[in-house]
Amino acid sequence: MKTFNPNISISCLTLLVTLTLGCKEKPATSDRVTEAQSEVTGANPAMEGFNKVDSDEKAIGIADEVMKAMGGRKAWDEARYLAWDFFGARRLYWDKWTGDVRIEYLKEDTKMVLNVHDLKGKVYKDGEEVTQPDSLATYLKRGKSIWINDSYWLVMPFKLKDSGVTLTYSRKDTLADGQAADVLTLTFEGVGDTPQNKYEVFVDQADNLIKQWAFFRDAGQDSANFIRPWDNYRSFGKLLLSGNRSDNGGPTNVQLLDSLPPAVFTSLESVELPAVN
Fold it and tell me: Are strands 110-115 and 121-125 parallel, antiparallel or unpaired?
């Protein structure tokens, strides 16, 4: 298996899936289950722009079972603050409802606070705030790409019916432990930095959780650039999330938080943050 370098991940893995952005007080209606739908067990409407025409019903049905196994759409929509480390290189704090993000590099003197919806924010690097407009814009754009990439490694199972996604059933296969799995293929159109990518996700038939994923840099490739586990699920409130995976890759020190100090998303100064359990 290839060694993964988080510093090059932005160029080869970023997919702009429609992650939950909204107003300051509550999630955007278009990205949430409506009040009526939330009363229906297992309701999981597709995001606007999901390619239902070219997706198949078997894959869509399995995606809905994945959502249910992860805690359900209503619980996902109601979850607000997520925090995690990415390959030990940086820590992110994300307000799902507003699109506000804080990125702290763990091995260099860089911090970013930005809103991924309007690309407004601040950057601190090498002892001083970046104020030159062009440089600031470049860093903020990179900050958004980091968030796109790093959050997908954490929340991909919730995004199988996102805008721009075509979801198809590929085959039955087996996981590394021999367990039977259904393999779904995700391709993309008109979204993100690298819409030519393709993913295969392996859904454990026993519990409907994604346990493995394969990345193809180009959808036309016959073989994957890598295949990695998606395991070690833990309960976070009503949700299940995968972190601290068996290959020591991806997200670690995951938190789902009920609140964060407002300064987390506005200040480049050090902010007292909840300890990781």
Answer: antiparallel
